Amino acid sequence: MTALFLRDLKLSIRAGGGALIGVLFFLTIVAVIPFGVGPDLKLLSRIGPAIVWIGALLAALLGLDRLFQAERDDGSLDLMLMQETPLVLTVLVKCLAYWTATSLPLVIASPLLGLFMNMDETAIGATMLTLLIGSPAITFIGAVGAAVAVALPRGGLLVSILVLPLTIPVLIFGVSATYAAVEDPAPFLPPFLILIALTLFFAVIGPAAAALALRNTAD
């Protein structure tokens, strides 16, 4: 499993620019918002957490269609299906490697991008924390879409269409927890705990559903 994690980590970084492309896309989305909404610093500060979350969500979807594509192209997907190691565990490791290579750099870059949106220290810290907790759920959800579309020649758009509606609860509670940390009367813990529960739920359901979809694709 360690060897598989390191292998997928290298592939995720090399394929299509990997983490660099995601961070640049993330930066582009957040950087153009001030030009669209104008120089109102209070407005930028108010919408900043939501914009950073939306940018991170869209950037995380960029390479999801390649999660199983390399194994499909070189035939190693059949070996994954026949190996003794449970396929669910293999998919889980691949998801963790993909998240480490693509979503973790977005979490690290979020404080810098928060400055573009005139966010204060509390808002930046809360956004970074909620992204760290919630972004794995996006990867686990995306694994299901990637497994469904792995046999299609141009499945990138299909993966985004399948995954985006399912990530809405993660986005809602991630942004809600961030705003709750900034606004003192609003309790931070309830939406944050729900965000943790969503990540744990999809950590179980996502790999299992992706493994089932891969087996049906092979059949």
Could you please describe the fold and organization of this structure?
This protein has helices at 2-14, 19-37, 41-60, 69-74, 76-82, 87-116, 121-148, 156-166, 168-182, 189-218. The chain is mainly alpha-helical and 219 residues long.
Structure in a nutshell:
Helix content is 82%, strand content 0%.
Keywords:
219 residues; mainly alpha; 10 helices; 82% helix; elongated
Radius of gyration: 18 Å
Shape: elongated
The biggest beta sheet is recorded as: none
Low-confidence runs: none
Please state roughly what percent of the residues sit in beta strands, choosing from under 5%, 5-15%, 15-25%, 25-35%, 35-45% or over 45%.
under 5%
How many DSSP H or I helices? 10
The helical percent reads over 70%
Can you count the beta strands? 0
Mean pLDDT across the residues is: 82
